[in-house]
Amino acid sequence: MVSLPGASPFEVAAIWTVLVIAFFGLAYAMFLRRQVMACDKGTEKMQDVWDGIRLGANAYLKRQLRTIVPLIFVFTVILFLSVYVVPPTAESKLRFVGYSDESLKLIIGFGRAVAFIMGAVFSLLVGQFGMRMAVQANVRVASASRRSFAEALKIAYRAGTVTGMLTDGLGLLGGTLIFIIFGVASPDTLLGFGFGGTLLALFMRVGGGIYTKAADVGADLVGKVEAGLPEDDERNAAVIADLVGDNVGDCAGMAADIFESYEVTIVSTLILGVVLFTQTHELSWIIFPLLVRGIGVLSSIVGTYLVKGNKNDKSNNALKAINKGFYSSAAISITAFGILSYFYLNDWRSFLSVVVGILLAIVLDEITKHFTDGHYHPVKDIAKNSKTGSATLILKGLSYGFEIAVWQTLVIAITIFASVMIYYGQPIVYVLYGVAMTGIGMLTLTGNNVAMDAFGPIADNANGIGELSHLDKDARKIMDSLDATGNTTKAITKGVAIGSAVIAAVALFGSFITDVSKVQIQMGFDKSAQLIETGIRISVPMVFIGLLIGGTIPFLFSSLTINAVTRAAAQIVEEVRRQFRIPGIIERTVKPDYQRAVDICTVSAQRELVPLALIAVLSPILIGALLGVEALGGFLAGVILSGQLLAVFMAGAGGAWDNAKKMIEDGLYGGKGSEAHHAAVVGDTVGDPLKDTAGPALNPMIKVINLVSLLAAPVIIAYQKPGQASVGMFITGAICFVIIVGAITFSKRGGFKKEVFET
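^ thats the sequence. predicted structure below, dont judge the formating
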């Protein structure tokens, strides 16, 4: 089935080995799942609390599925028809020798549509299955905390690893299967695979983010600030919605987010690898990235299995154990890549690019940890400012948020510079390939990163279950320790997710330039008009306009998502206040109606999905149709730059405010109920939608815009010859503009006027 002209026996065997590794990663996930599910679920009271979380999570997932499935069908048809605009590529003719142009269009169109469905379904599986696993694990972690820290840590991390290995295994499986079937023609089909995963990640990221922060903000403002109740008090009607939200935001959303980064980097690398193959006739440009991904899966298996607590260590340092697994995986990967490069590649450039990517992930980890972990100066400084009120605490958090955006962006710039220098003196395609390989390297340890992220909400939920079921002091101490570590690991993985989004977007940007140029050559454009020759010239007014508009899109997206959280949180505040006025709620003689708060969050989250998706999908088509393909390149540059800065700022500031609040709740400056604590809760409440909704939602948005641009560019070129105006393109742009304005209006008004509690 593999069709690779000039492939050696080793290269053919290598492709099949990578496919086997993908299945091995999935088998490891199932092995860990059985281990976790075999653990006990604790007391009847614990299971009663857990059942509320489980039912709320299931209700959210079912409603989300009903929203998403019709859109998958619509985009499948669009992607199938998209191949009928331009002639088949030379690579598709090389792969399917003897077929007519019409037959080739049918094959590629069908392949792209099926790949889109596969990418969407895989992203959905990673998010939904990972979230269900987290919900199953949280009560088991709470139960294990009654026995030992080591057991609780092992269950929480291995449950998170299930999601991590699903991300690794399904991402590798999809890309490898497509390559096996389509060979050098796979880039056309891989675009569909990447777009499917990215679009679903956008839905899950935005929906999960709105849900979790609406519940969290509402629960904190009324429960903590107004009523003076603890974090997870059973009298708070939003407490179950808050615990459900941890899962839909940080498990389902983040897992799908990193999965699509994992997909997109392999898509962009293989697109550029095929270009280099056609120039050099060396298959290593294509085979090496797949082998790197396979090695990454194996190293993640080894590293994640090493994470376990020491029964004799009373420090309860979960982060130390998690870091041990992460750095073990990194060391194994780098060693294996070096051996592979020595025996397979003709030079070390690709290997060095991958190593630079791994180092980038490690450095971003450390920068994020410095600004968001309570052991370091920034969080301590923010907590100190709680003594003078919420205003000074918020201002201090903002200053550190701006600072972390600077450092992370500079590190990414240095990393890209290093990738460029590795291929210094080579044509631009080699340089872009090096950047794409850096993205491959950065996500080598995806299994570890997703495991670290999913660990956070599992530990958080376990702590909530422990408080609601009134577990003993020693068990609560263990869960508090795991919860604090989970806050740090979530912040770290957000930093990696944002960094990977930028690297993936830059790699896609390179693919955009090369793909556009290939189509321009096919369409008979003069060399002077080809993008590979002219580049993206910001001195051209239309391109600069595109750059400016691109820079505004992340701000518009953030405005709408934060507005959605504010609107939903206000409804939660009113609902919790209403229930507090019911006789017997405060006295614990009457049980709150938890389901009503869950319904508010579920409906509010799903209502925002379609408008925001339309903005992300249609804005690049609008720019390309009205301003041209080069201006579209400027638009992409603007989206990438402002999206990176804004996302890191929001995630960093929000994470720092969160951990400053945790430090005060642990007894600093008067502890819970003090004026300092009230100030910290306000700061955390402001930061919640920044770090868990708007900031993370920018990751998939950036990649959706890039992939739509890649898919739309051939159509734009076909109907926009140089110097010729196109009525069809003008009409297309006008329609996109009207729809976008309608989507913004719909989102700002909160949808159609209907009862919010309707389910």
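Confidence is low (pLDDT under 50) at residues 752-759.
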